[in-house]
Amino acid sequence: MLSVGVTGNIGSGKSTVCSIFRGLGVPIYEADLAVKQLYQEHAGLRASLVALLGEGVYRASGEFDAGFVRTRVFGDDDLRGRLNAIVHPVVFEDFAQWKAARALEGHPYVIKEAAILFESGANETVDVVVGVVAPMEIRKQRVLSRDGMSEEDFARRVAAQWPQERWMERCDFLVHNDGETSIIEQVLVIHRQLLG
Q1: For position 142, what pLDDT does the model report?
Q2: Which residues contact 171 (CB under 8 A, 6 or more apart)?
Q3: d(CA 78, CA 136)
Q4: Phi, psi of 129 (to 5 degrees)
Q5: Residues 6+ apart with CB under 8 A from 175
Q6: Is pTM, for the whole model, over 0.85?
Q7: Is 134 left (phi over 0), alpha (psi -120 to 50) or beta?
Q8: CB contact set of 45 (below 8 Å; sequence gap of 6+)
Q9: In the beta sheet, which residues pair with residue 123?
Q10: Residue 179 and residue 175: Cα distance in Å, rounded?
């Protein structure tokens, strides 16, 4: 069974693209949601995070404290690298198990949606990559109006991701979400090609 990565920078519209694929019956593994669940439920990951970052990773209620983690790793590339070296292999294994279950259901292909597909090395866990690209000004307008994010926070999020120019040439397909070209038509073309 084919596995397809879908990636794009913040505000590019990758979730919209994935919702179109989902409407076509394609199972979607949302890496961002999966990692949040793994933070809560994966005992080995919990223990490793506490060992690396301290008890504050989890609140007294047992809930993962993303703010604490962001504060600890902000500006510390070495610590962020060590954190990623713990988290990414767990997510890769979770995706492999999820994919195996979808294969048993008879799906021709599945999608892994990940904002940092290339940065995390997750592109090595898929066969084909679809990149969702959009002009920076459009991405900024979408995020500021949708999420109520400040311009400073948006700039930080952008800086934490590879610029789309860096990964576009490594994609097998591109979906242009510029408000002018139909993304539904672009997704349908890709879907037909993936079905072979």
Answers
A1: 87
A2: 7, 129, 130, 131
A3: 29
A4: -125, 130
A5: 13, 17, 130, 131, 132, 133, 183, 186, 187, 190
A6: yes
A7: beta
A8: 38, 39, 86, 87, 90
A9: none
A10: 11
Rounded CA separation 131/22 (Å): 16
Cα(17)–Cα(80) distance, integer angstroms: 29
179 in Cβ contact with 137 (< 8 Å): no
Query: Residues with Cβ < 8 Å from 96, sequence gap 6 or more?
Result: 125
Antiparallel, parallel or unpaired: β 109-113 and 2-7: parallel
pLDDT confidence of 152, banded at 50, 70, 90? confident
Q: How far is CA 123 from CA 2, 46, 129, 141, 177, in A?
A: 13, 25, 7, 28, 21
Average pLDDT for residues 54-72, to the nearest whole number?
A: 93
The average pLDDT across 1-29 equals 96
139 vs 158: CA distance, rounded Å: 10
DSSP 38-61: HHHH-HHHHHHHHHHH-GGGB-TT
pLDDT of amino acid 153: 85
Nearest to 115 by CA among 19, 37, 16, 9: 9
| Residue matched to tokens 């076509």 | 24
> pLDDT, tens digit, for every residue of 34-58?
999 999 999 999 999 999 999 999 9
